[in-house]
Amino acid sequence: MRGLSLRGVAGLLAVLLAVSLAGCTESGGEGEGEGGLTVGLLLPSRAVPRWEKSDKPLIEKRVKELCPECTVVYANAENDAASQRQQMNSMITRGVSVLMLDVVDPKALRSSVRAAQREGIPVVAYDRLAEGPISGFVSFDGAQVGRLQGQALLEGMAARADGGGVVMMNGDPSSPNAAWYEGGARSVLQDEVRILKSYNTLGWRTENAHDQMTAAISDLGPSRIDGVLAANDSIAAGVISALKSARVSPLPPVTGQDADLDAVQRIVEGEQYMTVYKPFRLETEAAAAMAVALARGNDIDALVTTKVDSPTTEDVPAILLTPTAVTRETIGRTLVRDGVYTIDQICTPELRPACDRAGLTR
């Protein structure tokens, strides 16, 4: 599998637009809304802020731009596979034209993906690789996410990276991305540090991460923890809260992912070492283009950049984008430059001195 570098983004977006607009005047069939097609969007949870704050509105906006006659129907599974299966089956019964599925549990939703295929409804796996006969996959390169986290953690640990002790706080094991991230991180950390504890964080929930980190501190003692590999920013929030509650000072470097605003503010303040920035606009635009093309019965070969294998399906057409590591020194030339956040959004009055030290000035 290969990711798509930012240098290739402009070319990809041009192709996405051209392919998605092809056949724009075609009439749809069963599953249409009023005079158009219906795109079913299934997102996994609200525990991770990005789904509701970024992905949903960006997908809805891009679908409408590419396909003014399209209607988006939306459901959030609240991290419950049974609920997502029910939501997906309801959309299949409704006769949607295409499904965009960010799967909670690939095995649990496999039968629903097969049911969609039987009804002639293509399924685009969004962000997480679903199982069953999916038509396409759009995500960021998860192994690279983990490698970026591992590399940054070693940099943050500095001299302690030579045989230092690390706690790994991985994601929810029901998510295929969790193992993808962990594998990438371990490929960097192995032979460099000692992994003292490794946890799976159910639901990617902050409170679960807090409890697990509290247990690690109790078992190991704070002086043995030289760094924490946290799989995303929600987990990092729980880790840092537990460390502060235990009066650990100075805080060890803690990684993250998703560039949540509160995580960026923790980075400015020096509580979190880094996050992984995944430009959601690129992911949502690629997925929307793939979904609209499939809904219209168009070919997607011109869109894909690689192929991937799931546990059930080989050679799934895919677009894998390239993530970027963000530290305090690079917030300005990544997140601010790309318009993800303004300096005023990041730099509250309480953070103004820290922002000045980080070079985040108006």
Q: What's this, in brief?
A:
This protein has helices at about 10-20, 50-65, 80-95, 105-120, 140-155, 175-190, 205-220, 235-245, 260-270, 280-295, 330-335, 345, 350-355; strands spanning about 40-45, 70-75, 100, 125, 135-140, 165-170, 195-200, 225-230, 275, 305-310, 315-320, 325.
**What is the arithmetic mean of pLDDT?**
91
Biggest beta sheet attributes = 7 strands, mixed
Question: Globular, elongated, flat, extended or rod-shaped: what is the shape?
Answer: globular
Q: Can you count the beta strands?
A: 12
Helix/strand/pairing category: alpha/beta
Q: What does this molecule look like?
A:
By secondary structure, the chain is an alpha/beta fold. It has 13 helices and 12 strands. Strands 2-1-3-4-5-11-10 form a 7-stranded mixed beta sheet, with helices on both faces. Strands 7-6-8 form a 3-stranded parallel beta sheet, sandwiched between helices. Helix 2 packs across helix 10, helix 3 (81-94) packs parallel to helix 4 (106-118) and helix 5 (142-157) packs across helix 6.
Task: Give keywords.
7-stranded mixed β-sheet; 3-stranded parallel β-sheet; 362 residues; alpha/beta; globular
